[in-house]
Specification:
11 helices; about 220 residues; mainly alpha
């Protein structure tokens, strides 16, 4: 982190920033194991659990406040259980929308509870770079920056119709997220949905440098689809 390396950065970019970087091979089985162990802890508070990748999840604890206290109290309890039983630290964001909860979990790592409420979100969230809002990827952030939208507050202050012109339907959705107006629900764990599309992707071990190499990978992916 001190060298400016960010999560999900490519190895070649990271090594450019830190030439002495030591790369450790991932252990996916261990990831799965601890992911499942963490979810058994989550179930002590609620069955409204929506995984977000292997190491994150949203919990709707609305129905559990009578048993365990408010959101902050439950978040602190989760952190304590996870640290004592799994030997892992975790950061928890408590908020009234999924996007703000996710943002809160990223603000003060590696072991913290951050509460983003209806009273303080303008002070905590709006000054942050727009790229920190969930669903604003690098390309969208660059587009917004070109229009002078640099912070989440800038995004919230935009005209929603104008955002839809710039970004299509997602422009309106991002505006709702920035304003704290999203009402997206936390889904129950293992909830099923109709399949809308089938796809496949891969990260190649080495850079592809010619058309034949690219075709070979595309054919393999196409065959698997």
């Amino acid at each position: 982190k001190a060298f400016g390396i960010q999560t999900a950065e490519t190895i070649w970019q990271a090594k450019k920033k830190c030439p002495s970087l030591h790369i450790v091979a991932p252990d996916l089985e261990k990831y799965h194991f601890y992911s499942q162990q963490a979810r058994t802890i989550f179930y002590r508070l609620t069955d409204r659990i929506e995984p977000f990748g292997l190491d994150e999840a949203w919990l709707d604890v609305t129905g559990s406040t009578g048993l365990f206290g408010d959101g902050r109290a439950m978040a602190d309890r989760l952190r304590c259980w996870t640290r004592e039983e799994l030997g892992l630290t975790c950061s928890v964001g408590v908020s009234f929308t999924k996007a703000f909860a996710k943002l809160g979990s990223d603000l003060h790592k590696p072991d913290a509870t951050t509460v983003i409420s209806r009273d303080n979100y303008r002070q905590l969230v709006w000054p942050l770079p727009v790229s920190q809002l969930l669903y604003v990827g690098a390309t969208t952030a660059r587009q917004l920056n070109r229009f002078g939208v640099r912070t989440i507050g800038d995004l919230a202050a935009c005209d929603e119709k104008l955002l839809r012109q710039w970004l299509g339907r997602s422009g309106g959705e991002l505006w709702m997220e920035a304003c704290g107006l999203s009402d997206a629900k936390v889904e129950q764990y293992a909830a099923s949905h109709p399949v809308k599309s089938i796809g496949n992707s891969t990260t190649t071990a080495q850079d592809l440098t010619n058309a034949e190499q690219v075709k070979a990978v595309l054919y393999q992916l196409g065959d698997q689809v």
